[in-house]
UniProtKB/TrEMBL annotation:
Bilayer-crossing regions: 6-25, 37-57, 82-101, 108-128, 166-188
Membrane topology: Multi-pass membrane protein
Protein name (database record): TLC domain-containing protein
GO biological process: ceramide biosynthetic process
UniProt entry keywords in alphabetical sequence: Membrane, Transmembrane, Transmembrane helix
Region described as Disordered: 201-234
Organism this protein belongs to: Mesorhabditis spiculigera
GO molecular function annotation: sphingosine N-acyltransferase activity
SMART domains xref list: TLC (SM00724)
Domain of life: Eukaryota
One of the record's GO cellular component terms: membrane
Family matches, as InterPro entries: Lag1/Lac1-like (IPR016439), TLC-dom (IPR006634)
Amino acid sequence: MPCVLFRILWEGLVGIPLSHLFGYNKGPWLANSTQHIFGGFASFYTAAWIYGIFVLWDKPWLWDVKECWIGYPFHEIPRSVWWYYTLEATFYYSLLLGAFFDVRRSDFWQLIFHHVVTLGLLSASWAINFVRVGTLVLVSHDIADVFLEGGKLPDYQIFNPLQVPYVPRLIIIMLVALFLLHIFWTYIIGKIVVRTIQEGEAADVRSDSEDEAEEQEVRRKRLTKTKQQTKKED
C-alpha cells in the first residue's frame, strides 16, 4: 500500500500539474490535483481497505471462509465490525445523495443503481446477520476500486513516446534548463561573496579545483626531484 499512496501523491502533486503544463490536461490543475488526492481514490477506497484489513486481521473468517457459516446465524458482531459497516454504509449514502447535486456524467444512472444495490446488500446482510460475508465482500470491493481508479491515470499521462515534440514544449524544456543554470551560478556568486567577506579578497571559486591540481602537480615534481638528488648523493 505504500506504493499506492506514493502513486496517489505523485499523480496529484506532480503528474497532474505537469500534464496541465504540457497541455495534456485542459482543466484547472489545482482542482484536478485536489480532486485526485482528496477524492474517492485516496480518501476512501484506499483508507477503507486498510481499515478493513485492520479490523478483520484477527478475525478467523478472514483466513478461513468456513467460519462465515459455522454457528450461523448466531454470530456476535464486534464493535469494530459495527463501525466498519457503519462507515461503509454512510459513505455510499453520501454518494447516493451527492450524485444528484454533482455534475451529471454519462454513467449517472448506472452509478445510482450501483449505490442503491450496494446499500441494499449492506442492509440485507446486516438484517440477516450475514455480516461476516459482507465484510469480506467490502474488503474485496474496496481494493478492486483502488485499481479501478488507477485505470484513470492514463488521462493524466505526461509523456507520449509516439507524439512528435513541438516547439512550445522544447522552449519550456530549454527555459527550465536555463533556470537551473542560473540557480547554479547564483550559488557560485554567493560563495564568492562569502569568501570576500571572510578573507577580504575576491576570488573565482570555480578555479579552486584547478589551483589545487596545479599545486599538487608542483609538489609531486618537487618530491620526485628531491628523491633523484638523494639517490645521486648516495
